[in-house]
UniProtKB/TrEMBL annotation, chain A:
Source organism: Priapulus caudatus
Name of the protein described by the UniProt record: Zinc finger MYND domain-containing protein 12-like isoform X1
Domain of life assignment: Eukaryota
Upper taxonomic lineage: Eukaryota, Metazoa, Ecdysozoa, Scalidophora, Priapulida
Xref: Gene3D superfamilies: 6.10.140.2220, Tetratricopeptide repeat domain
Coiled-coil ranges from the UniProt annotation: none
UniProtKB/TrEMBL annotation, chain B:
Superkingdom, natural source: Eukaryota
Ranges of Basic and acidic residues composition bias in the record: 88-111
Function of the molecule: Axonemal protein which is implicated in axonemal and/or peri-axonemal structure assembly and regulates flagellum assembly and beating and therefore sperm motility.
Pfam hit, one: TPR_12
The protein's name: Tetratricopeptide repeat protein 29
Composition-biased stretches (Polar residues): 16-29
Region Disordered: start-end pairs: 1-29, 79-115, 161-191
Keyword Ubl conjugation part of the UniProt annotation: no
Compositional bias segments (type: Low complexity): 170-179
Subcellular location: Cytoplasm
Length: 412, 517
């Protein structure tokens, strides 16, 4: 009872120090899966309990994730505290495992230096370390998000937000990336209110920096659009996605791969609104953009390989980045699924979608799957006289799949 | 920095009053302290926070906070940034010290401002965007949100293309600052609106596979650009029309639209003086209309329109090359004549045959010249075109004259004179008289020639006696009179041996002696 009292008192006294939002986010993070006996063993190795009431006056130990009073301590670094084993497990699996020891110098009290230059040196060192940690946590969070593990990604992304604030300050544009990732995770977990808050922060920051990078602008609008879509406010969602497409196309082009994401989401919304024709043209456009892009990569890679095999040098291949690959797989498979449903009506488009899938698999390095897709594309095309040209293109691609050795292109 | 939180609702979302995200515990500052710092900002909401925070009296804080937070939440949905007095208060407050509570007067002023603001209209997210972004931006987003992504692409690409053109021209224009500059496409709302509506209509029709409608929308836009004088945009739309027309022809099994769009492109190219390409488009238009009885909106056969266009363009091309390359000019003229003969326009036929006649005349091929000129004459007779008839007579007469056939030349010139007299055209009459006079002069009929020149002189002298044409007629008249005296001179002076001494005698005495004869 007394402990509880202290907790509330701590909270009341310092409203500013508590990240209420984060607390809300994390308090609903549930313990992931069942904790096996092994895990239990590990936990007892790693953590130890602390008694807040026994701490010296003025020292408050707060949970790493929810900023509530902590009752546990990480034994490895001894600078991280948790309110319970749930949050400890989440944090450990999410990010703490990878940054545990690196946190020690950041959180332990500053050692005494006799000269100004030494102190400065130390501060610089810490700053650099924070930057590295920012990059690391962001990368980990992004990876987990791409893998669809939104829940697991949250601790990492939160950490990245902490580091971003420490490195760049509160109103920096650098924070937007973290906000967006958090929002994405929250949308994935259907926690719309929190997603909305993060996106508001992101949007406000972008508004305050009018000449920031177009990617950030378009990403912010895209996430807001997705949020509105989930909330069912389709009008608003369309407006935001339109903004996204606009910002992208002004800087790159209207038929760039970056722009295509906006088109895809718009297509989804039109589908939900029942405007199938519009959705279809948008999907087809996305397909066309990706098809062109992937064809370019495949041709380049094949040429490069031939060149390198004749010159005996290692080929300089283009690969999709991780983010792009994840997007491509997501978008193209969604469109493919839609066309498969409608394959009786849109034979040509279905075949086109199959071919794009094949190209994607080829670029990713999955030759056998590429072959299967290409064969399906050929099959769906039927034997119309007019489509001879397309048939030939697919056939030559199929040939390429069969002839080129599997490992050479899939070297990633 | 701390001004962010409550301003956020202005951009569409509501955020709880104390968002933990804002706090930065590493600084060791509480949100309150941050708020106080933020009071220096020029944003009005900060002023309220200062008021809230600065009053150390807990009672005041308690009583004020609910109403104020309410007001804040309300207010933040509006865009308000025009209250200068509130700003002043904020500045004053921050300069005098952070922890001072506001005086009564200041508080009232603040309340007044809040009341003023509550009278301001609410603005939706869309309205704020309208204020914030350019017209082009708004239009693009509206278009996209309506699902017209092709229209959007077209708009963006055209604007970009124009921008690039400008940049290229920029260097050239810098050298000539006097050249008038057109405003960029993105800053012309009227044009953008028209483009958007037409293109969206076309896209909608395309989605429904109603290509006829799509063609019409695109064509309308092309015509609009024709009026505004944006040639490159017109070309772009006409090319789009041509593309669509191929789709139309697949559906309707009729090439009429293709033919029409070919014709339109030809006309546009012709206006830009790109004649050879225009001729190529007209040719394909002509070929497409072969054996077809399509009619345009006015009920005219497309075939004859094609002939007319081709005739015109070939004539123009002939005119252009004629000073350099006469053979080519002749070839173009012949082509023009062929097309004119096929077409239904008598005027075009007359004009080309006349030009062809003249060209042959120049080359010395009088036979053919007379043939074509006769065609012209017939056309003029059919059309009852007195001036043209006169011209044809004149040209034929000239051809005959250079052939050496004076009698025929004379007849045609007489006809010319008659026509000129009946039409009362002064200039034609003058020219006819002169030409006829010359012919008479050449054939030795000096009296008739004198008559003609006399008439010509009188014609001029009546209106302007001292012009070159009048003087010419005068001189010619004199010459022919002199010529008419040649015969008496020969018979009476040259042939008679006594005539010369008699003349000399007369010259000395200056008295006419009857007996000399």
């Amino acid at each position: 009872m007394r402990v509880v009292n202290i907790c509330t008192a701590t909270q009341e006294r310092s409203p500013g120090t508590v990240c209420l939002k984060m607390a809300a986010t994390i308090s609903s993070v549930q313990c992931m899966g069942k904790i096996t006996e092994n895990e239990m063993q590990r936990q007892t190795d790693v953590i130890t309990s602390i008694k807040p009431i026994a701490l010296p006056k003025g020292v408050k130990k707060l949970c790493e994730l929810c900023k509530k009073p902590a009752f546990m301590q990480c034994l490895q670094c001894r600078v991280t505290f948790y309110c319970g084993s749930d949050h400890q497990t989440s944090d450990w699996e999410g990010i703490h495992d990878q940054i545990c020891t690196q946190l020690i110098p950041l959180r332990s009290p500053e050692p005494h230096f006799s000269t100004e230059s030494k102190r400065k040196e130390h501060a610089d060192e810490l700053f650099q370390q924070k930057r590295q940690l920012l990059q690391l946590t962001r990368a980990v969070g992004q990876k987990l998000l791409f893998e669809g593990k939104a829940e697991k990604a949250i601790p990492a992304v939160l950490q990245s937000l902490h580091f971003a604030i420490e490195v760049y300050g509160l109103s920096s544009i650098e924070l937007v990336t973290s906000y967006l990732m958090l929002a994405e995770a929250c949308i994935g977990l259907h926690r719309l209110k929190e997603a909305e808050d993060y996106l508001s922060q992101a949007q406000w920051t972008v508004l305050m920096v009018p000449d920031c990078d177009y990617r950030i602008k378009s990403q912010v609008h895209r996430q807001i659009g997705r949020l509105c879509e989930v909330k069912g406010d389709y009008e608003e969602a369309l407006r935001h996605l339109a903004e996204d497409v606009y910002h992208c196309s002004i800087v790159t082009s209207t038929d760039d791969v970056e722009t295509s994401g906006g088109y895809f989401h718009m297509g989804n919304i039109f589908l939900k609104l029942g405007k199938t024709d519009k959705a279809e043209t948008l999907y087809y456009r996305v397909l066309k953009i990706w098809h062109k892009y992937l064809t370019g990569i495949v041709t380049f890679n094949v040429e490069e390989e031939e060149k390198s095999s004749s010159l005996l040098t290692s080929p300089k291949m283009i690969n999709l980045g991780k983010a792009q690959e994840a997007e491509a797989v997501k978008v193209l498979s969604a469109i493919h699924a839609w066309y498969s449903e409608m394959s009786d009506r849109h034979q040509l488009e279905f075949s086109y979608s199959c071919k794009t899938q094949a190209l994607l698999n080829f670029v990713i390095g999955d030759r056998s799957q590429a072959k299967v897709c290409a064969e399906r594309a050929l099959e769906a095309l039927g034997d119309d006289e007019k489509k001879q040209h397309t048939r030939r293109a697919i056939a030559s691609f199929l040939n390429l799949c069969r002839t080129t050795p599997q490992p050479s292109l899939s070297r990633r | 920095m701390s001004g962010l939180t409550t301003q956020l609702p202005a951009i569409g979302f509501t955020l709880p009053e104390s968002s933990g995200l804002q706090s930065d515990n590493t600084n060791g500052k509480t949100t309150m302290e941050q708020w106080q710092e933020g009071a220096g900002n020029r944003t009005t909401s900060c002023t309220h926070r200062r008021f809230l925070v600065g009053s150390q009296n807990p009672v005041v804080q308690k009583s004020c906070s609910p109403t104020l937070t309410q007001k804040l939440a309300k207010k933040s949905k509006r865009i308000i940034d025009n209250s200068v007095s509130a700003d002043k208060t904020a500045k004053k407050g921050s300069s005098e010290g952070q922890k001072r509570s506001l005086k009564k007067g200041e508080r009232e002023l603040l309340k007044k401002n809040v009341a003023l603001r509550s009278q301001q209209p609410y603005m939706t997210l869309e309205e704020t965007m309208r204020h914030r972004n350019s017209y082009f931006h708004r239009l693009c987003v509206d278009t996209l949100a309506g699902g017209f992504h092709e229209t959007f692409t077209e708009l963006v690409n055209l604007a970009r293309q124009e921008q690039q053109q400008r940049e290229q021209e920029g260097a050239a224009a810098a050298a000539q600052p006097s050249s008038p500059s057109r405003p960029p496409l993105a800053t012309q709302p009227e044009k953008l609106d028209t483009m958007r509506s037409c293109l969206a209509r076309a896209e909608e029709a395309d989605m429904k596979s109603n290509f006829e409608e799509e063609y019409k929308a695109q064509h309308e836009l092309a015509r609009y650009f024709n009026q505004t004088g944006d040639a490159w945009l017109e070309d772009h739309m006409l090319a789009a029309c041509l593309n669509t027309s191929h789709k139309v022809s697949k559906c309707k099994a009729s090439n009429q639209r293709i033919a029409e769009s070919n014709c339109n492109i030809g006309v546009s190219l012709e206006n830009q003086s790109r004649w050879s390409t225009a001729a190529a488009y007209f040719e394909s238009f002509y070929n497409l209309t072969a054996c077809q009885y399509w009619e345009d909106d006015n009920g005219r056969l497309l075939r004859s329109i094609a002939c007319e266009h081709l005739t015109r363009i070939y004539t123009k091309m002939a005119e252009r090359v004629s000073p350099v390359d006469r053979d080519n000019a002749m070839a173009y003229l012949l082509k023009a004549y062929d097309k004119a003969k096929e077409g239904d326009s008598n005027e075009a036929l007359g004009a080309t045959s006349y030009q062809l006649g003249l060209a042959y005349c120049d080359r010395g091929d009088q036979e053919r010249a007379i043939k074509y000129l006769t065609v012209f004459m017939e056309v003029c007779q059919k059309q009852n075109d007195q001036i043209g008839l006169g011209e044809s007579y004149e040209a034929i007469a000239k051809a005959y004259e250079s052939q050496g056939n004076m009698t025929d030349a004379k007849t045609y010139l007489q006809r010319y004179l008659e026509v000129a007299q009946s039409s009362g055209h002064r200039d034609a009459l003058y020219r006819a008289s002169l030409s006829l006079g010359e012919i008479y002069n050449l054939t030795g009929d000096f009296a008739a020639a004198t008559d003609c020149f006399q008439r010509a002189y009188e014609l001029c002298a009546a209106s302007s006696p001292d012009t070159s044409s009048a003087r010419l007629a005068q001189v010619l008249c004199g010459v022919t009179r002199a010529h008419s005296l040649l015969l008496p001179y020969n018979t009476r002076v040259v042939d008679l041996p006594s005539a010369t001494p008699a003349l000399l005698r007369w010259k000395e005495q200056r008295k006419w002696q009857e007996d000399v004869e």
